Amino acid sequence: MLEAMDAAAHDDPAASSASYAHYLQSRLLHLAGNHRGAVDELRLALATDDGNPRLLTQLGEEYARLGDLERAERELRRAVEKSPRYYPAHVFLGRVLMESGRLARARQHLRRAVGLRPRDPEAYLVLSQLHLDAKAPDEAVKVVEALAHALPGEASGYRRLGLALAERGDTARAEKLLAKAAERDPGDVEVWSTLARLYEEAGRAKEAEDALARALEADPDSREVLLSAGRAALKGGSLTRARAYFDRLLSLSSSPELAVRVAFSYLSAHQSAAAEAVLVAARKDAPDEPRLAYYAGLVAERMRRFSAAATAFADVPPNAEVFPDARVRRARCLSLAGDHARALVLYRAAVKEAPEDLELRVAYARALERGGAPAKAEGVLREALGGEGAAMAYEALASLLERQGRPGEALTLLRDAVARSPRNQDLLFSLGAALERQGDVAGALSRMRAVLAVAPEHSAAMNFIGYLLAQQGRDLDEAERLVRRALALRPDSAAYVDSLGWVYFQRGEARKAVELLERAVELAPDEPAILEHLGDAYLKAARASDAAASWKRALDVLTLEPEAAEPAGQRTALERKLKALPSTAPGR
Hints:
Elements: H1 2-8, H2 17-31, H3 35-48, H4 53-65, H5 69-82, H6 87-99, H7 103-116, H8 121-133, H9 137-150, H10 156-167, H11 171-184, H12 189-201, H13 205-218, H14 223-235, H15 239-252, H16 256-268, H17 272-285, H18 290-302, H19 306-314, H20 323-336, H21 340-353, H22 358-370, H23 374-383, H24 391-403, H25 407-420, H26 425-437, H27 441-454, H28 459-472, H29 476-489, H30 494-507, H31 510-523, H32 528-540, H33 544-560, H34 570-580
Helix pairs in contact: 2-3, 3-4, 4-5, 4-6, 5-6, 6-7, 6-8, 7-8, 8-9, 8-10, 9-10, 10-11, 11-12, 12-13, 13-14, 14-15, 14-16, 16-17, 16-18, 17-18, 18-19, 18-20, 19-20, 20-21, 20-22, 21-22, 22-23, 22-24, 23-24, 24-25, 24-26, 25-26, 26-27, 27-28, 28-29, 28-30, 29-30, 30-31, 30-32, 31-32, ...
């Protein structure tokens, strides 16, 4: 808005020297954020120059900045009454009326401002924002098109409205406007970056990368753009281009967090070796940086290289901020790698320091069970049943009892807990899950519906029911409705996307199932259940070689972490599927 005033300064009525001195002082106070002081100085200026529209307009702005819209409107109305052709007053008054919710009156003043200065962008921009706030995007587009006609080559209207529409999820309109903005101002990094995001969300990886390349022409050292460009190149299938972007990025900074973001970008694209190489190089450059050791452990853990992960976590010193988590992760990795004695020593130390941490106690119990001491594990969990958030302990104990061949005891444990706390959504969910694992589908569905009766927005229960119905091949419309409700609450849940894909699979819509399940794998690249589902969908879509590759990936994960099997016999089922493929299928 100040730009509009400055542009109009040359035709303001002349001010006396006394009022001008107060005006200058008000500007200094304004820039210092002292709007109350600026009001006082402007009042003194008006005492010797009453009715000066510039002073009145500035006074209206100061009141608006103080949140006093009523006084702001009063002073601005005085300005337009005194000088009906004073452009900045109409623009400011339009904005104040807009913020007060009086859109029709605001629109009148903004249109008047446009008429006064058809080649000044400011009134157009405010007017387009008014239409956008009024949920009339087509009218907003007409305004910026009018600005472009009045001022050929002007990008601001397309830019501002395009970015606003992109933020609101109106991707079709946003893309068109931002493309026009980029034509007029090819050096606008934010416009190109936003266009790239829209392209990526639409699955247009090549166009996304091209847009980011244009952004880099304007700002070759933009870290966020380089990171996004590398990720886009990976999605487009070019490891070489991705490495070029990432290498440039890493040359700009030795930040551990930056190295980790690059490593995890590689990891998300299943480029494990590249991810590991980034962290190895970063650790050589900063061998004493504990965060790099921690992040190297995270990458190795995600790759299910548990011994290597434990070694990396061991390099995190006790005085590091991330040490507590590194110690627990190291203990888990040692346990999964079969080094039970060292794992249990670490767990005991951690539990001693944080005895109220229930999640830690559950992990300790699981390590005891892996180490051949299920009775001790059971004891640890039973001690935790009366603590805060005990539902987690009940779930863990029930699962342990099932693994130890005591499913009846597991159900009794959970039923008794639910009887004592019939509205505890976590206990109800655990009981429903246990009933499903033991083959009681009707009981599981009943308990999950009870969860929704207590907690209508419980997304996990919605997904559970939807997936279970899909597994049974029944009530697929209800299954889809529930899973979509769950996804509305957690749109980036790989499990929920997988469930929706499975609904389509059971309907026989193989192509749509593949599309959704590929998305689920992008979100969780190493989940055996999702990889198996994707393989099943590939096979139904007559893509046997892709099916074999997906199932083999699932088997590779299970080889590294047998506990990831879901259900317990998943490995055997996958091997049978691979054997049943035609002998010509690659990877069989």
